[in-house]
Amino acid sequence: MKFLSRHLFIILAFALLISACKSQKNTTTGTRPSGTINSSPSSPNPGADLPVKKLPLAPVALQPLTFQMPEMPREFRGVWIATVANIDWPTSPNDSYAKQKQDFINLLDYYKNLNFNAVIVQIRTAGDAFYPSNLAPWSKYLTGKQGKAPSTTENPLTWMINESHARGLEFHAWLNPYRATMNLNTSDLSPEHDYNLHRDWMLKYDTKYYYNPGLPEVKAHLLAVIKEIVDNYDIDAIHFDDYFYPYKVAKLDFPDKTTYNKYKKPGQSQDDWRRDNVNQLILALNQTIKQSKPWVQFGISPFGVWRNQSMDPTGSPTRAGQTNYDDLYADVLLWMKNDWVDYMLPQLYWSMDHKLASHRILNDWWAKNHYNTNVYIGNGPYKIREDSDDAWDDPREINKQISYTRTLPTIQGNAFFSAKSMKLKNQDVAQLLKTELYNEPTLPPAFQPKSPSIIDTPVVFSVEANSELTSIRMANPLDPAIRYALIQGANELDQLADSEIHPVWVGGLRARTLEVKSLNTEFLAIRWIDHYGRIVQTQVYQIP
């Protein structure tokens, strides 16, 4: 019997090898040596208690099945981790690097436990950096003094990305493009800050300095900042928030008239010229990102109101005091129409039926005006029990909002500002969210490549397991475009698709063998995810 089973397994494995197909996808450049990936039993997301079919100490070969797994559900579940002014992390710039790391891990584990699948981490706050850069000094929010490096030989950004990926969390690198300082006290700025290197790029407005968006040199510099990050880090997305031209201050004009007079086109109004400056930056950023790594997403999280209907019949029936188009000079609809962004994440930080800007009405508006761009909704749990709007006294306000968003098929998820708002306080809100709406894990939305490309579909040669470890051997080294192996186990086939997901990060490693903690279940599924988030291959196995 063993002899027959072994030959049956070899025949099936060989059939899988022969039938390996090519899937449209882009591969990374440069590879690491092929080898073994070991997923330690102490790695995050150890999993719930599963019914155990105890395997022997000696490895046994698992038998491949032809069972078809259904497509996994998709929903973006993100959280902003704000570093400016130490809002979320680090808790203090004076903490030791070891404590800062532990605090970051605690944030990741907390939101992973809530079944989130993405973190949006602020890595540039105001002309600074949370990573070693040739274009910006170290952030004072990381080390206490701008330009001072952290007390480690480790790259903090590489470490944060790796820890996020190890938990199956997408890492969206969040930057503020035009904000240069947080106040007018320039004596604390590093000699390497752009204020000191390029004073002619700076404009003072109210209580801050800003990069002048109308200068070609500023645009070129910002493109270089983004390219440095995309080229050197395994991020999933570049993310901008709502700070383009600054929010207007009463009776105070943004001082860019000289630049406008120099660079305006014939007959071009100052407002249109400002919008064109931002439009050209967004277009160039999209091109820069996609030329380097086509799978890296470009997402924008704008202010929640594009235009009021009183100004434009296409606008929303709202009465916002400022809007993207008219005050921040951000024509977000144009960016979606032209396919310059991969997702839009409007900040709808109002209650469901707010009189001036209803969360419900704005959900409807964005659901209608998506132009085939992925749209997620930004929610504001920071307002719970902290706002003059009585609606926020209800801890169920967030659940009401998510439930409504889910009724709109053109909106694919949510993100929450900010991390501490449901961790340091309002944990009851977080538990309501998990219990009622985020009770099961899910994958974030996938993206399709914009140009043809090839990826080698993973082919499993054999799977062997004992009571401790499961070894997955590949017929060929994994294509570097494969990001994850998602492992699931169950004792019934019809329960396999809904069982807990154990992500194993394999991105770019060219591994031929994976060793993962044995789940000791009757059935095992392996789903391979590429760097666009697509499932490119699924295999199901049974313990003999």
TrEMBL record:
InterPro entries: Divisome_Glycosyl_Hydrolase, GH, GHL10. Transmembrane segments: none annotated. PROSITE patterns: PROKAR_LIPOPROTEIN. The keyword Signal applies. Keywords: Lipoprotein, Signal. Residues 26-49 are annotated as: Disordered. SUPFAM superfamilies: (Trans)glycosidases (SSF51445). Residues 75-386 form the Glycosyl hydrolase-like domain. Residues 1-25 form the signal peptide. Residues 26-42 have a biased composition (Polar residues). The keyword Lyase does not apply. It holds the Pfam family GHL10. PANTHER family: GLYCOSYL HYDROLASE DIGH. This is Uncharacterized lipoprotein YddW (UPF0748 family).
